Amino acid sequence: MISRCCLLVSQCEDRSPGEEDVALTVEREMDKMETAIKDAVERFTAMLENSRAKDTGTQLEVNESILGTCSDLMAAVRQLVRRGAELQKEIVDSGRGGASPKEFYKRNHRWSEGLLSGAKAVAIACQALMTAADQVVSGKGKFEEVIVSSREIAASSMQLVMASRVKADRSSEKLRNLNVTAKTISTLTGTVVATAENCRDKIAIANTLDFSKLSLHHTKRMEMETLVKVLETEKHLEEERSKLSELRKHHYKLAGEIEGWDQEVGATSELEEQEMIDF
């Protein structure tokens, strides 16, 4: 499935369409984007079913959360593509007069290129999110990759929306529908980011506190290593507190010299500051 999506994305050639086939090129690239998103949604469903069959506990909870939110985001992108296609058709139909779609796209080639660029960006971003989620679920990837990919989807979706708006009638209901979907994608992107961050922390805690597979020897060794780290951290904390105290004393001294504070006020301030540090 992943190789299929990679093929679809690779077929989105980075070139400006020739004037004679521009209408056909726009339609073809929009269809490829729709297919890539459809395949991604199906892949997420398959990954979730596979995880439920073999995973348990925290790992299953994390996988369900990641795949669930990513699937919701992908579904919204799919709706965005459909609504974008509806708006695009409305623009072409209302703006071409007696001309053919090919002639309309030819006259408005910059707008056409903007649509193509947005469509390709969305397809590539969806592929990146699917790959990142797949890697995380299999334990080989990083949650940060999911975060970056989801944000890229939001950015590329907005690129497609902006390209679609250029020639749209501001009172168009189809434009309003597109804007609503764009806002939904923005919200869902935030959900994916928050979920990925939360799941990352859950996995980190679970890995840190899972001692069930440690032998007696390993347990004792980790206990001693942890104690050493605690002592080192406490020592470093005391050193930094002392450093902070001396810096503040020096600051008050310099400030007193500049402002002409008397010694009594300076001493009182130092005492109060020392009490704040020794919490």
From TrEMBL:
<dbReference type="GO" id="GO:0035615">
    <property type="term" value="F:clathrin adaptor activity"/>
</dbReference>
<feature type="domain" description="I/LWEQ">
    <location>
        <begin position="14"/>
        <end position="255"/>
    </location>
</feature>
<dbReference type="GO" id="GO:0006897">
    <property type="term" value="P:endocytosis"/>
</dbReference>
<dbReference type="GO" id="GO:0030864">
    <property type="term" value="C:cortical actin cytoskeleton"/>
</dbReference>
<dbReference type="GO" id="GO:0080025">
    <property type="term" value="F:phosphatidylinositol-3,5-bisphosphate binding"/>
</dbReference>
<keyword id="KW-0963">Cytoplasm</keyword>
<dbReference type="GO" id="GO:0043325">
    <property type="term" value="F:phosphatidylinositol-3,4-bisphosphate binding"/>
</dbReference>
<dbReference type="GO" id="GO:0007015">
    <property type="term" value="P:actin filament organization"/>
</dbReference>
<dbReference type="InterPro" id="IPR030224">
    <property type="entry name" value="Sla2_fam"/>
</dbReference>
<dbReference type="GO" id="GO:0032051">
    <property type="term" value="F:clathrin light chain binding"/>
</dbReference>
<protein>
    <submittedName>
        <fullName>Huntingtin-interacting protein 1</fullName>
    </submittedName>
</protein>
<dbReference type="InterPro" id="IPR035964">
    <property type="entry name" value="I/LWEQ_dom_sf"/>
</dbReference>
<dbReference type="GO" id="GO:0048268">
    <property type="term" value="P:clathrin coat assembly"/>
</dbReference>
<dbReference type="InterPro" id="IPR002558">
    <property type="entry name" value="ILWEQ_dom"/>
</dbReference>
<dbReference type="GO" id="GO:0051015">
    <property type="term" value="F:actin filament binding"/>
</dbReference>
<dbReference type="Pfam" id="PF01608">
    <property type="entry name" value="I_LWEQ"/>
</dbReference>
<dbReference type="GO" id="GO:0030136">
    <property type="term" value="C:clathrin-coated vesicle"/>
</dbReference>
